Amino acid sequence: MTRLIMLCVLLCLPGRAATPPFAQRVQFVIDAYAHPKTAGPLGYANIAAKLRLHEDAAQCSRRLEELLAAGPTGDMFWMFPITAIAYLDQGQLSDSARQALRSSLRTYMPYRGDTENHWLLYYTSLYLMAQMWPDQSGDQWYTGKTSAENLREAEGWINSWVRLTTTRGQGEYDSPHYMGLYFLSMSYLAEWAKDPAMGKRRDDAGLFDRRLRRRKSRWHLRGRALPSV
């Protein structure tokens, strides 16, 4: 799961913003998922990586339909890779694969979760999906709410979380494994949110810097080095 999280963070990073050494590490990870060494059917992460590289669109389309026909699982942990696929598609997927993806958001009801990182993943994905398919009625969504209502609910929760985090701090157990989940959500919004205010939540809140400084200080106090991407 940690590897999938980091891949999704890297997939939505704009290449123009990366320095050459970091860009090489990003490319290495994406290539590894796009061209797995072990034989076997593609997963959501492999499909997303291939779409980022604009490779094997027909294969990605067929496999995505197979995965969705088998029935989505994973709740909010299914939502964030499928959101990446939706935004990395950019006209590459077949019409039937794109329709299967859209239909899954009507027929599958992902559990919102019960912790801070779960809710942020859930609402970030819901926000971006509602943004991608605006002006749709409640019967087209698993929530039973319209696109506008889903967008408004997700935006309200995310804004509330940012305010709370930057004024009083986080309420969740401060595990280093959760850091990637917060980075993932903020990276998605920074790259794909059309509303400039939502896209700037990461920078306005200084969330990346806050969490990195906090984590770095704690790891150093324990005599350990902070892992690099």
UniProtKB/TrEMBL annotation:
The keyword Signal applies. Residues 1-17 form the signal peptide. Keywords: Signal. It comes from the Bacteria. This is Uncharacterized protein. It comes from Solibacter usitatus (strain Ellin6076).
